[in-house]
Amino acid sequence: MSVTIGGATRLYAIVGDPIAQVRSPAAYADVFARHGIDAVMIPAHVLPDRFDATLRGLMGLGNLDGIVVTVPYKARIVPFATRVGPTAALIGALNALRREPDGSWTGEMFDGAGFVHAMRRRGGALVGRRVALFGAGGAGSAIGCALAGEGVASLAIIDPQRTRADALAARLSGAFPACEIGATTRVPAGRDMIVNASTVGMRAGDGLPGDIGDLAPGTLVGDVVTADAPTALVREATRQRCIVVEGRDMVVGQIDAMLAFFRLAPEPSRAASTAAAH
Amino acid sequence: MSVTIGGATRLYAIVGDPIAQVRSPAAYADVFARHGIDAVMIPAHVLPDRFDATLRGLMGLGNLDGIVVTVPYKARIVPFATRVGPTAALIGALNALRREPDGSWTGEMFDGAGFVHAMRRRGGALVGRRVALFGAGGAGSAIGCALAGEGVASLAIIDPQRTRADALAARLSGAFPACEIGATTRVPAGRDMIVNASTVGMRAGDGLPGDIGDLAPGTLVGDVVTADAPTALVREATRQRCIVVEGRDMVVGQIDAMLAFFRLAPEPSRAASTAAAH
């Protein structure tokens, strides 16, 4: 979907490094056009050694109303928020910042809700699932939090930075005592849901995020990576006829909630979004 | 003309305050589409008290390749350039900044060339003209410089900041000794070209930039203001059947030169651009 840009067009920026792979500018162009909103989402390639100065500059633009955040900045951006919503507060990461009328900034994390929404649209039932989750960064934290909130039975968190996996497990265990949550180094036996929330798959030639073994029929597989070609995990899951959610589905799955957060559309009701899935 | 934005789309920003009136985003969308360039020009509303921090932030974006500058920042942005071209050096103002492969920034001023090009397309002959020029800021300096370079006979510069008008007159007199150049407070008798390069006309309800008297047949009139409705000066000049160039014509008139400056198209030859006018 194409957009028309004029001097009065309002700006939203998606901030990340790298940036060429992001899907949000195209997805939001579509949504803005459908809603008749004179706004555009631009890709903003923010370099790690210039993060603070670049963010301050972007947030100083008088016609920039919101920021969407992707890898690797979902945790690093938290101090730029004047206040954060409950999910962002729990996991210490956010992927959306909204400018308030008084010039302050409110942040919240929608990756988890987007992932769950996308999986529900595919018909994947989450209650009671035994989940292996690769990646304890911003997206992994958000998805782990959302899955625990949806009633999965267990969550095994795998991250090369073991302390990061431990910290996320501890935090989610405190918030969701009914879910069996722990950090580990490999996919435990008997998993019926695999989620990659690591960056493995972003680079061409990347393999699987880890040994996933054979996937039982009915296994749910998610991969947050957005890339032109399907990742190795998505290809393998598709070959084994799993229900699959990709990064682009997660982006689309959170658009309604994010539009409401940006005050560009009414709050989606869960009933309505569930109904829309059928 | 609409544009399609993806993660790999390159950014150009037009920087100004206010910003809603600018024409460049739409004009460049058209040109980028015609040339098959995956780029977009975004309006960037930079507030005066955040100018330095916002510019540093924008210039830190890894996917921003160039900046176009409009009111009131054409002089204030000069220190952000690592080096400037000859016109910018002469008048101390610029309206385009290009990122070099080594990360440095080169600036140049194209308003004057754009104005002259637009006037030539309308059939306005400039040699020997007696010009009254309102506004000795960035655009006025650029246009005054370009008109003197085109061989106008005289240039009377009018600006509420008299020292600014005096300084411009002195600088241009040194560079163009054959042209009679001076600062004044009102339009002298016998002018056959009137140019408004002040901000008068940007606000709805603005009148003329000054008393322009009766316009003789064949008078050339230019107004750098870009607004949805014609300015009072443009309306009056149109009523008196003058040859008129507006702000949007000046934007379009400099696009080819600016595309070449941004290394997005080959350098336009003067012969080619003159030929294209017929």
Question: Characteristics of this structure?
Answer:
homodimer; 278 residues; alpha/beta; Rossmann fold; 6-stranded parallel beta sheet; 10 helices; 20% strand; globular
Which strand order does the major sheet of chain A show? 2-1-3-5-6-4
Mean pLDDT of chain A: 93
Question: Looking at the chains present, what oligomeric state does this protein adopt?
Answer: homodimer
> Based on CA inertia axes, which overall geometry of chain A fits?
globular
> Helicity level of chain A, as a percent range?
25-40%
Poorly predicted residue ranges of chain A:
271-278
**Number of separate strands of chain A:** 12
CATH architectural designation of the largest domain in chain A? 3-Layer(aba) Sandwich
Number of helices of chain A: 10
% residues in beta strands of chain A: 15-25%
Largest interface: A-B, 42 and 42 residues
CATH class of the largest domain in chain A: Alpha Beta
Tally of individual domains of chain A? 2
Determine the CATH superfamily of the largest domain in chain A.
NAD(P)-binding Rossmann-like Domain
From the alpha-carbon coordinates, what is the Rg of chain A to the nearest angstrom?
18 Å
Intertermini distance of chain A? 24 Å
Give the topology string of chain A: H per helix, E per strand. EHEHEEHEEHEHEHEEEHEHHH
- Helical/strand content category of chain A: alpha/beta
CATH topology of the largest domain in chain A: Rossmann fold
Task: Draw up the topology in text.
The structure is a homodimer of 278-residue chains.
Chain A: E1 10-16, H1 24-35, E2 39-45, H2 51-60, E3 64-69, E4 83-84, H3 86-91, E5 96-99, E6 105-108, H4 111-121, E7 130-134, H5 138-149, E8 154-158, H6 162-175, E9 180-184, E10 193-196, E11 220-223, H7 232-239, E12 243-245, H8 247-253, H9 255-261, H10 270-276
Parallel strand pairs in A: 1-2, 1-3, 4-6, 7-8, 7-10, 8-9, 10-11, 11-12
Antiparallel strand pairs in A: 3-5, 5-6
Helix pairs in contact in A: 4-5, 4-8
